Structures are given as C-alpha cells and as structure tokens.
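Hi U.,

Before I forget, here's the chain from the pilot set. I'm dumping it here mostly so it's searchable later in email.
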Amino acid sequence: KANITKVTKSVEYNCGAACQGALRVDCCATCRAYEDKPSGLEVDNVTCLGCADEEITAALHDSDCVLVEGSFQCETKGRCASGAVESSCETTDYACDVVPCGSCGDEGMKAQCCSKCVQQMCDEQSPVRMVCEGCDALPGQQQQQQQQ
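Structure:
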C-alpha cells in the first residue's frame, strides 16, 4: 500500500466586505492578478469576492474616478490593503494498493495476476485505488526492453 496526501491551499479576498469606491477597484485588481497566478502567494487557489464586473462598475460610480486614456484615475481617502482575507488548507488522503505482478517468475502466473488486477482496477464500483506493477508491458516485451 502507498499512502498519498494532496494538500490544497486557498486564499479568499473579500474586497466587497472591506473596501469601498476606488479602493475596492484597487483591491479587486490586485486580487485578480493573484487569481491568475496564485503561486505568487504560495497557494493553489485565490478567490476574489465582491469583484464581479457589475460590482466594480458600481464601485467606480461611488468613487471620484475618471477614465483617462483607457485607465481609471481615482482620488480618494481611506484604507484598504487587501480586503478581508480568509485562508484555508484542505487535505485529501488517498490509499493506493500496489499489486506486484512483476515479481511473478512465471509468465503465465504474471499474465493471470495482471488480468485479475486490471479487471479489479477497472471495476467502476470498486472504491480501491490501485496500480498493477509490472503489467505495463505485454509478455516478451519486458525482456526486449531490458536488452535494449
């Protein structure tokens, strides 16, 4: 058996809860940059709340912003560095059975082991995750690969 753990790290920025006006626009722009490249925060997923296009448009109306050559320029006073941040870490554990069919000395026994293993592995109703070790080559191919 092999045990595998997958860890997923996530960060959620709630710009809508903590920022108003131009500061919300800035919070969302920063968050969206990390949403596209979460590795910059050393996480797997970044979620931006309160940053839908219609919410940003409403925030622009509430602020003192003007569109100048394709960019918004805003004048405002206030504070909002990153919005309300919530971090989470999710782990998923997998157990994987390893069936060592490759250690069978006899080709007939190996073929029978592989047949039974692959049949069980492909059973949709089987909750077991498994690997059929030594069954990735047809009989005779393994010897040819070792000679090359």
